[in-house]
Amino acid sequence: MTLESIRTLKPAEVGGRIARKGFEYQDHIAVKFLLDILSGKPISEIWIEGEDDIVLLYPNGKNCIVEMVQVKSNDLDSRWTVPKMYSLELLAKSISRGRCDEQVTYRIITCTDVDPTLSFLKTEISDKARNNTSIPSLIKTHKSKLALIPANLKGENVSDWFSKCVWQVNSKLEGLRAENIIYLEKCLHEKYNLILAPDQKIEIYQKLLSFTSSAGVGDNKHHFTDDEIIAMFDKMMAELAAPLKGTEKLKKKLAAAKLPKGTLEAAKEFRWQFEMEVMNHNFYGQSQINLSKNRIHILIQDLKLAYDNGDKFDIDGKFFPITSDSQFHKYCWDQVKILALELHISEEIALGCMYDNANRCTHRFTKASI
Are residues 181 and 82 located together in one domain of the fold? Predict the structure, then answer.
């Protein structure tokens, strides 16, 4: 039977590419692979929501090796076992992905560890320490269930799958995000000789997360070469290294949020009042201004991350999602004014601080995008 190349094969499922709701963990895993590309690992292409959750292509002479990656965020109350793999259809689904002409390997990524009988899967296939000798006895032990799983179109059975699969155990969502940000910092330092401020690292990470979460949704492009990924990083770093003068960055950010022209004029006025106070301390001491700057910066950074993540916001004692950039701008405006009362500074100075953050730093009134 002649099989199609992965490049012309129509995905077995398209449900995952209609929307990305509920795919947070997978999106963070995809970001990690983007960072692998940046760090120089030999991934020639990454496909998000293609034939599998994530598909990685590795150079192999004139051809490539295709790695089918399944990501499971299930926080199980006990370790993964063969019966669980069977009952949750993980095995059958992964094996079925072996249906293209190229050489295929498999990777399962979970935040729950495997049973000791499956621990050999945690060693990379290319590692000399990899030991597949327990596969026959493993299959014999679970023969009643594994015999029901058919071979894939390449003729590979359960035994072949075990010998070609790697099981990668990662941290849960928050831990994975923290590890990725540290990895991002390391990659950027090695590639661009840059050390970024904390909010800059978070902003870049949010942009990468936006990239992976939107890839493959609807008609959006879902496959990218290593050169395209590197070019994307180059563009972000170039923008970071060449800040706009005056209030041009603020103007662009307010325009991106589709706010009326009057908002820009008010923002510029508030920012000017804030800058005058920072320089001259006409009304407030230096320590009070510094404290206010830090508190406002933390507040709006938290609000921005919540907006990116689609969290609900406390509006008059009830929690609702914010569905537009103008609504988010209004919410930031209101929350900064509330904080101004607590800090005992004027609303104008507090709002000026918010707009100064938008002009100089990473605050914005739109969701993250590249």
Answer: yes
| Rounded Cα distance, 219 and 166, in Å | 31
Q: Give the pLDDT mean for 290-309.
A: 95
pTM over 0.90: no
Query: Structural domain tally of the chain?
Result: 2
Angle at 56 between CA 151 and CA 176, to 5 degrees: 110
**For the chain, what is the total number of helices (H) and then of strands (E)?**
14, 8
Same-domain check for residues 189 and 216: yes
Contacts of 235 (CB under 8 A, 6+ apart): 370
Q: What is the pLDDT of residue 17?
A: 52
Average pLDDT score, the chain: 92
Asked whether the beta carbons of 303 and 331 are under 8 A apart, the reply is yes
The span from the CA of 204 to the CA of 194, in Å, is 13
CA 268 to chain centre: 33
Other CB atoms within a 10 A radius of the CB of residue 150 amount to: 11
Residue 302 token pair: 């938290």
Q: Residue 193 contacts by C-beta under 8 Å, 6 or more apart in sequence?
A: none
Claim to verify: residue 200 and residue 269 sit in the same structural domain: no
Question: What integer is the mean pLDDT of 302-309?
Answer: 95
Instruction: For strands 223-225 and 165-169, give the pairing.
Output: unpaired
Give, for 356, the enclosing helix (H) or strand (E): helix 347-360
Which are the contacts of 11, defined by CB distance < 8 A and separation ≥ 6? 17, 49, 50, 51
Q: 149-188: per-residue pLDDT in tens? A: 999 999 999 999 999 999 999 999 999 999 999 999 999 9
Rounded Cα distance, 205 and 122, in Å: 27
In contact, 69 and 51? CB cutoff 8 Å: no
Q: How confident is the model at residue 21 (pLDDT cuts 50, 70, 90)?
A: low
In one-letter notation, the amino acid at residue 337 is: K
Indicate the residue among 239, 274, 306 that finishes a domain.
Answer: 239
Q: State which residues form the domain around 300.
A: 248-360
Q: Which H or E run includes 294?
A: helix 286-309
Burial class (CB in 10 A: 0-12, 13-18, 19+), 207: middle
Please count the CA atoms within 13 angstroms of the CA of 151 that sit on its side-chain side: 7
**Backbone phi, psi, residue 73, to 5°:** -90, 0
Q: Let me know whether 106 and 177 are in one domain.
A: yes
